[in-house]
């Protein structure tokens, strides 16, 4: 039904390919079978019943893991000996792991393992995942009734109440976190613009010529991990995807203003139509429309709602393309965002040029709405720190002043020399700016990553996730047929609900975006080396491939 050869668009994509993957390992990927400690704890009562109900409806027998739960997170923590930096690192690690200890249901331990090779009826497909990132799509936008196609991904699979971005909640730091599983403090893209004192060089996301060099980009993005495991990968416009690294994605379409969301998603379908030995298994796509409108018009504007509808319509066309190819239950689709958006106005502007000389700063705007203070004359750094501390205390201003090493542990941010020596963190809704500049946009992000308006989305469907219909081989189809008499009523009810748009998604608790790389990796059977990411759950959500 669908030709395996390359059409004109497919050929154009290949012509646009900037490089071919340099595979350095023939090692076959293998599935991890060791559960993380957080997966062996006590599940909360509501989640136990919710999951048990799901498994019963699907006809799966009860597993021993169903009665396991979460750890007691109140046990006493022992502070190690060492200097203040070592103790600070311990506190940060302890807080992060304690926060994540109330883990999600371990679906992978109870649901069946899907076969590695799946068929759409005419062609075989290796495990495949499509990662779609919608820049600036705030978690509660999904509740506006404007995104039925996006919501349908969660209805057919799983969704998180929200995904917590990393601090600072800016585009480039968080997209590289999504790709690598590392906090900005660890992967080095600490802001959209910053100075590296060791390289004596500046990073500016608006200047590719000086910022795409691999010296800036630490960690290994998921598309490189795929190539290292002999899988093909493809990237469209992803921040960092154009970095000139030794290993490149197999296919790459660079960011261009004229490329619409429809163009990008059509390109993905073209890749899926390729022959099996040319087809990418890991595809990452960046979509910017919602963020752009959010900045210019604010998160509550009519134009923002229109942008949501435009993006959702394009997504609907893409999902229809998957259904036409009989791929809805063959490939995995993950929809995420990097951060949210909040309204800001002049009434909440703090003019720092009333207290310090902006001309003495390097990259003063690099952490908007916050202020990063790295002075041209290092001697002035401490002077400005004291000046702003006094101003805050005297005038009760809505910000806090930190030395780099004093930043709150929950930020997981403060050990990288690329972070300015002094950081002024404003309260939610406020912004540090100069009087002559004012507030340049209506919608802003970058605030504390725990702020509700900064929350991101996570929805996923496909054979690698719970609640998905699996395309199986003949033997497993026979096994499913034997269970049909137990499932028929539930399936008919679910199908009726899907037509009416009333399916209730499996909703899991929030999690940090450093967990995403492992989730993506497991959907295509990739094994990540221990401690290669800052996540601690090892793709707990997915069915092992």
| Main β sheet profile | 8 strands, mixed
Taking the alpha carbons of the first and last residues, their distance comes to 27 Å
Percent strand equals 5-15%
Strand order across the largest sheet: 9-8-10-3-11-19-4-20
- Mean pLDDT level: 78
Please give the radius of gyration in angstroms.
24 Å
Instruction: Tell me the number of helical segments per DSSP (H or I, 4 or more residues long).
Output: 15
Give helix % range. 25-40%
Number of strands: 21
Molecular shape: globular
SS class? alpha/beta
Unreliable spans are 1-52, 57-88, 94-115, 468-503
Structural notes for this entry:
- This protein has 545 residues and is of the alpha/beta class.
- It contains 15 helices and 21 strands.
- The strands form 7 sheets. Strands 9-8-10-3-11-19-4-20 form an 8-stranded mixed beta sheet, sandwiched between helices. A 3-stranded antiparallel beta sheet has the order 14-16-15, with helices on one face.
- A hairpin with a 4-residue loop joins strand 6 and strand 7.
- It is globular.
- 46% of the residues are buried.
- One of its GO terms (biological process) is nucleoside triphosphate metabolic process.
- InterPro entries: Alkaline_phosphatase_core_sf (IPR017850), Phosphodiest/P_Trfase (IPR002591).
Sum up the structure in keywords.
single chain; 545 residues; alpha/beta; eight-stranded mixed beta sheet; three-stranded antiparallel beta sheet; nucleoside triphosphate diphosphatase activity
